[in-house]
Design a protein that fits this description.
disordered C terminus; 9 helices; Rossmann fold
Amino acid sequence: MEHYGESLFVRDDQESRRLKVLCDVFDPLATTTLDRLGVRPDARCLEVGAGTGSIARWLAQRAVDGEVVATDIDTSGLRGLPEDNITVLRHDVTSGEFPESSFDVIHARLVLSHLPERDEVLRRMRSWLAPGGFVLIESFCWFPIDSSPHPVYRQVLRRWSDLIRRSLGTDSWWARTHPGSFAKLGFSEVGANTVTQNLRGGTPLADFWRLTITMSHDQLIGKGYLTEAELSAAYLLLEDPDFWDLSPALVQAWGHKEQPLAAGPLETTPAAQH
């Protein structure tokens, strides 16, 4: 088992392009849900796996009197963020700690599904959360691929999922049940939202998945998951405007940390009658 970024998801020019397309396609889904959950002007926010910093910048614009800590195991994409209320921190969420009740908002997109210790990380995130705050986790779920009527598309995405599962410990189906992880770990007001987007060849969404597969091209062939011909056929399909299917679903799940019960007035016991 290797670490994220060793041979897969290596931060290079191709990965930077893929991350930019990811932000263009998926940021509106994240910010809509963050807006609905509520980011106060004085909120202390943690963006885990911040990538290029697009969500960190959005949070900084909402939490104008608060602060945003943007973390990643590779912070090269976070250089030069202009906002004064953003702190960039190189941090491994599987081992690094924060003091208890440090944040009001914690967001992680496409991070926990890649971590075998995902439930333990979520438990620790709850301890970093201040009472009344929330955690929002976003992960892909593979169920639309299993029913795809296009054999090439179905085969290539399934085999790519097999590669990252065996290499990183990624669970491409965890998102289907991960709202249950929030409930099991003691979060309150647990909720979830699943978005299944229609994918058309040649669009930014199709380009994101083409770039994602291309990033793993050498490993997919070298480890015997796919042939060059199968990958070439998939690339052509994802560039073809006549190709329509469903993308892997994006599952958003969230939970809050309960506020402590307010102390009521002291009850007095009537004096004994004599």
